[in-house]
Amino acid sequence: MLRRSVIKGLSAAAASVPFISAKTVLAQSPDEAYLAYVHPELRPMAKQFLPMLRNQTPPSLANLKRDRLMVEQYGGPPAEVPHEKRVIAGRDGAPPVTIYIVNGGKAGTRPALLHMHGGGFTSGSARGSLGGLLKTAQELDCLAVSVEYRLAPETTYRGSVEDNYAALKWLHGNARSLGVDPARIGIMGESAGGGHAALLAITARDRGEIPVAFQCLIYPMLDDRTGTSRKVPAHIGRLLWTPMSNRFGWQCFLGRTPGLASGPIAGVPARVQNLNGLPPMFIGVGSIDLFVDEDVDYAQRLNAAGVTTELVVVPGAYHGFDAQTDTKVVSQFNAAKIAALKLGLGIA
Length: 348
Known about the structure:
Elements: E1 2-6, H1 12-15, H2 22-25, H3 30-34, H4 43-54, H5 64-75, E2 84-88, E3 97-102, E4 110-116, H6 130-140, E5 143-148, H7 157-173, H8 175-178, E6 180-190, H9 192-207, E7 214-218, H10 243-254, E8 281-286, H11 292-304, E9 309-314, H12 328-344
Parallel strand pairs: 1-9, 4-5, 4-6, 6-7, 7-8, 8-9
Antiparallel strand pairs: 2-3, 3-5
Helix pairs in contact: 7-9
């Protein structure tokens, strides 16, 4: 059954700055008018982003090194959290895969999360995601593993899918020694990491070797047609992740022009026709995120396939909005995510 939710509550301060009427929008500058679509609590940060985005240069292979550095700087230095780094064997002769384990070292049979970081398929790192992952693992009292999968365009989806599958197989195969219940392993990711998690759930189902208990997809990147052959309204996908960025990310990931009438099914979750038998899912996205339509559509298709699905759409939230942890709307969103993970992983 599909549970559809919208985060509605505003703090007292935010309630005094409501969504702006269309009449007011007409009298404002373009940037001010755009803020009418942004959640009141998220507007201060949006105001800082808009001038920077006006001067954004198109992503390209020539600029990729610079853009990767910018992603690292935006996220800040990797949090100094306790972790264990391991290097495991790749699949079928592929290079070794680095993984990071957090909140481990406990006896018993706890659930576990396998995490894939975001970054548009072309940037980001598992090491840089450990701070937020540790907080989630502590709230759930579970072990968590983050995968340093190979980035595009150095590899296409074929390589990174195998990296993530190798990590899942390692986690399942070593569950007992890690204090993990092999029947309660969930997968999770944000943005491109959410796309990776969706692909991993499909791959695990198709191979039939390893059970996945739950998938948690946060504004996942699921469809190469968004912003290419499928246009979006002007107010959607303007902040942080744009159609221009999306085209480049999918081009690198697929190794071909994105949005074509026929695409590599294995690399694009939204193009996979058979969604039967996938694990239960939580999917959360903002209403002005570039991915909102593809995420809602994916949730509805899973529901139609008989997959238990919870969908949360946050009004006025753009891509990556949940980095603003000092807002009530983000607290509500994170609470919904944690509640879904507890249910999906069988945590009382």
